[in-house]
Amino acid sequence: MKKSSIILIVIIAIAIAMILVIYTDSSTYSTFTEAKEKNTELYVVGVLNKEKDLHYDPVKDANHFSFYMYDNDSTECQVVFNGSKPQDIERSEQIVLTGKMEGNTFHASKILMKCPSKYNKDQVEVIEATTTASL
Amino acid sequence: MDINYVGEHLLPGKIGQFFVILSFGASLLSLISYFFATKNPEEKHWKKLGRIGFLLNAISIVTIGAILFYLIYCHYFEYHYVWAHSSKSLPTHYIISSFWEGQEGSFWLWMFWQVVLGTVLVFRAKSWETPVMTFVMLCQTFLASMLIGVEIFGSRLGSSPFILLRDALDIPVLKDPNYLAMIADGNGLNPLLQNYWMVIHPPTLFLGFASMIVPFAYAAAGLWQKRYKEWMTPGLPWALFAVMILGGGIIMGSFWAYEALNFGGFWAWDPVENVSIIPWFTLIAAVHVILAYKHSGHGFFTATLLSLISFVLVIYASYLTRSGILGETSVHSFTSLGMSGQLIWFNLTFLFIMIGLLVWRRKDFPRTQKEEDIYSREFWLFIGALVLTVACVQMIATTSIPVFNALFGTKVAPPIDPIAHYNKWQGAFAVVILLLTAVAQFLKYKRTDSKKFWAATLASLIITILIAGITVYFTKVYTNVMYVLITFTAIFCIISNIRILGDAFKGKWKLTGSAVSHIGFGLLVLGALIAAATNEVISVNDSGYIGVQNFGKEGDKFTDPGENLFLTEGEPVQMGDYKITYIGDSIAPPNVYYHIKYERLDEESGKVKEHFVLSPFAQNNPDMGGLIGTPATKHYLTHDVYTLITAAAADSQAPMSKIKDEEKTGFEDYDEPATYQVNIGDTLRYRNGVFVIEGINKNAKLEKIPLKPSDVIVGLKIKVIAADEKTYEAEPTFLLKDGNAYDFNKDVSEQGLKFRFTNILPEKDKLEIMVYQKPLPEKKWIVFKAIKFPYINFFWLGTIVMTVGFCMAIYRRIKEGKKGNVKTSI
């Protein structure tokens, strides 16, 4: 057997092992209820509760931002983020949180937002027509 | 019913749409003609027709670009693309950036570069022109179809940049004949793209992507035409060119992210970054195996496969970023334009061409029966290429998780901490690759004298151990075994290649390009490692006066002090080595610049050793989601101090007075007054100091008011001493005229004070004064984050050195190619 063939086999074996490890590294998208049970870091997907106040008072603490979010099972939970308020969270359509549950609040270490893109927004800002149409 | 719309400019759009269709037709014509020209080389008219098609295509592409520029320049918001990606306030030089904010524009850019490359090929490729151009034009045809924007059999093919706003959006307002007068402005360009790096980074990156078609086309043409060995000679300089440009483009993007984005770093393992680096890795692997094959005859299949797959991966990258499939995992991919079907076909076509050609010609591949020697360069080049490929497999596997989810209906989420995940794997690969780039340079093709090899290697190794030890000590990366290993191998790579460079100066010029580019690579990895491993947030909020944040357990990441620091205007805060003060802001619409003064004090004498002002700015753009910060960075030779605004007082953008001038009484700016009964010589406090009642002026005079002898007029001398020891004089006056009391107040506007002398109380022997104070203005504040990046200059320096090395290698290979041609013709 040629040396290169042996090395090729070894490398393919490494590649396969690697892919298996990648999938043990991977995570799952879960809900607040699951987060309470598991107590490990995970992803929670959901939407912002726009009716409740977003709390961020940088004068008091520049690293404390809290808000309420519904997960995919429509469970509501308070979320606390140890950082400054992400700029466009009010407009977000969907939020992906990374973090873990501590008691009854979810402590997020990362917030990823899906915002209406400029393509989908498709809202034309209209100014008042000053001239009347002449037909 | 047809509506007569007012004020539209439809002609340029119609011309543009015509050229969009023409560009598709012309590239299809060129593709077919070049195909038959290759099949029947004796029929000259096919080649001529192919060139005509290419020329027509080139003219169309240039015209489309010109018209689109014209539309954006004239702010014709009746066109959806113009409305969606520009606004009236956009400076002219950023019009060019709005070309690549949208997908249509970036497809145009890709086609434009392909036209440029195609032109070079038509003039220079000689006997390779027809087969190579067949593949280039196939790609061009696919790209042109992305812009057509016509409905065929109920599904839309492509998306045209010339589509009208009223056709693109279904909104009642747009049915109004006069809708154009109602559209105030376009959506504008994302402020993040309003950066000079965004003018240059996308074109470079797209030139890199576009030029990867050339090695693909040469490899495919080589298989098709059975010119197996030959294709590598003209293909190699092109592959080097693509690697150089793409590498430069990727690092430019990384520099843009570092300078203009608020990621807080230069590399984030975002899927968009990964998919651009994957084809770069595979093509680098291809370049190395091509070299191995040219010198030893080993590895034809691998060299060809890697050259072909690199371009397939470019298309895959464009599928991932443009189809919206990465939505949940990436911050900055395009959203879907409903073209993912088309992109999948594009991808599959090139994948099948690759597989088909390789299977079809598998029997004819040149092979050697000889076995590679362990002490041969080609053997280790081959191993290096395989390691690079495995590194790519890792990146593809993790990045493609959303694709697997879509394919198999699973719901696997990517790793929680992608940066740690990728660093773990890619760090290990980097160690192997760096080791190979060092060692393989001491080997010769075919067979090396093992004694000479070990002598050279060990000598370099000893120097490396010394330098690496010092580096590890000073950069403090010794906390992590992997960091130490990468530092060591990167320095080994640099030292060994410097040695090779030394030999080059003694006359072995051939290896200069490779030595220089490998030194650059070593520097790049070293800089990236040190900057990424030892960067520290220096704006740590460890004052501890906020109890709220310490909720979790000890050692939990959530209990770490936050990374954002709160600064009030004019109040210095100690931050690491620096005393920092927020000294105010200035407005240059649409940006607000926040000036932060950094002072480094000498510990003993307290003197300022060094000071500088950083002015990160933020743009408040409600359309784009509020305040968007752009960092400011102080560059030193050994480190950078990076500062970013994360929040700011909302009113710093627009201070305004609500009360009209004529309604002012002069007192509305003041707080409720305080009334004091005082004697001469009394000292009283106010918010910012004290004031002293100094005495009475019985000879006070008033202009304009004539006084009778019976009137009493008294002035009260008051001296104000502010906290900063400045003094001010004021003399409010009291007047008794015809039995009525009047008083005339006096301001000390610098201190926000107003004094009234309101009464004289002879029975108490007191004087009555009223003091008005302005409320202290609410101090402006900012929340910001500062990060120190040590030795990041190695990263940028490495990039430049590497690019220079590539240029030298390209020059050498082109020269060799020419020599080779001469040889064969003789």
Task: Explain the overall architecture.
The complex is a heterodimer of chains A (135) and B (826). Chain A is an alpha+beta fold. Chain A contains three helices and seven strands. Chain A has a five-stranded mixed beta barrel. The model of chain A is unreliable at 117-135 (pLDDT under 50). Chain B is of the alpha+beta class. Chain B is built from 21 helices and 24 strands. In chain B, the strands form five sheets. In chain B, strands 6, 7, 8, 9, 10 and 11 form a six-stranded antiparallel β-sheet that branches. In chain B, strand 22 (753-761) and strand 23 form a beta hairpin. In chain B, helix 2 (44-73) packs antiparallel against helix 5 (103-124) and helix 20 runs antiparallel to helix 21 (792-825). The longest helix of chain B has 34 residues, at 792-825. Chain B starts with 9 loop residues before the first helix and ends with a helix. The model of chain B is unreliable at 543-561, 651-664 and 822-826 (pLDDT under 50). The interface between A and B is large, with 65 and 76 residues.
List the helices and strands and how they pair.
The complex is a heterodimer of chains A (135) and B (826).
Chain A: H1 3-25, E1 27-30, H2 32-38, E2 42-48, E3 55-56, E4 65-71, E5 76-81, E6 94-102, E7 105-114, H3 118-121
Parallel strand pairs in A: 1-2, 5-7
Antiparallel strand pairs in A: 2-4, 2-6, 3-4, 4-5, 6-7
Chain B: H1 10-39, H2 44-73, H3 80-85, H4 92-98, H5 103-124, H6 129-145, E1 150-152, E2 155-157, H7 165-168, H8 179-182, H9 196-211, H10 213-224, H11 232-260, H12 271-296, H13 300-322, H14 340-360, H15 377-399, H16 401-408, E3 412-413, H17 418-439, H18 450-475, H19 481-505, H20 512-534, E4 536-537, E5 565-568, E6 573-575, E7 578-588, E8 591-601, E9 608-614, E10 617-621, E11 626-630, E12 632-635, E13 639-648, E14 674-678, E15 683-686, E16 689-697, E17 712-722, E18 727-730, E19 733-737, E20 740-744, E21 746-748, E22 753-761, E23 766-773, E24 781-790, H21 792-825
Antiparallel strand pairs in B: 1-2, 4-24, 5-24, 6-7, 7-8, 8-9, 8-10, 10-11, 12-13, 13-24, 14-23, 15-16, 16-17, 17-18, 17-19, 19-20, 21-22, 22-23
Main location (chain A): membrane
Keywords (chain A): Cytochrome c-type biogenesis, Heme, Iron, Membrane, Metal-binding, Transmembrane, Transmembrane helix
Protein name (chain A): Cytochrome c maturation protein CcmE
